[in-house]
């Protein structure tokens, strides 16, 4: 579904984690990392256990030039992934964190 269609749903009052995730992914794919980060932040506010959203939020923040916000998102995402046993997301975010820390040195 296009970001335009999702934005129309949001304008009509539909607001949930799945809609926000779709908007965040759509905007990130389109190269608008700052806008993506805003929607993904709302997504994890709706569902703090949504590990895939935390992972994408970290990527959006990193792409937007906010490494500290990316680090925070991935740290929270790792906790969410551990809580629900999502080993793959946990591993991916741990790798992203290591790369971020390496780049910061």
Structural description of this entry:
The protein is an all-alpha fold and 105 residues long. It is 81% helix and 0% strand. It has 6 helices and no strands. Helix 1 packs antiparallel against helix 2. The radius of gyration is 14 Å and the shape is globular. The N and C termini lie far apart (40 Å). The mean pLDDT is 96.
Short description:
The protein has 6 helices and no strands. The chain has helices spanning 3-11, 17-29, 33-46, 51-63, 67-84, 87-104.
Give a quick account of the main beta sheet: strands, pairing sense, barrel closure. none
Q: What does the average pLDDT come to?
A: 96
Rg (CA only):
14 Å
Order of helices and strands: HHHHHH
Strand content: under 5%
Write the layout of secondary structure elements.
Blueprint: H1 3-11, H2 17-29, H3 33-46, H4 51-63, H5 67-84, H6 87-104
Record keyword descriptors for this entry.
0% strand; 105 residues; mainly alpha
């Amino acid at each position: 579904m296009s970001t335009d269609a999702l934005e129309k749903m949001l304008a009509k009052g539909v607001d949930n984690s799945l809609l926000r995730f779709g908007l965040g992914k759509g905007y990130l794919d389109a190269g608008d990392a700052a806008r993506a980060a805003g929607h993904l932040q709302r997504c994890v506010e709706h569902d703090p256990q949504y590990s895939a959203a935390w992972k994408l939020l970290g990527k959006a923040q990193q792409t937007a030039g906010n490494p500290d916000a990316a680090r925070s998102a991935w740290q929270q995402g790792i906790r969410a992934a551990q809580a629900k046993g999502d080993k793959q997301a946990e591993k991916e975010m741990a790798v992203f964190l290591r790369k971020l820390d390496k780049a910061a040195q």
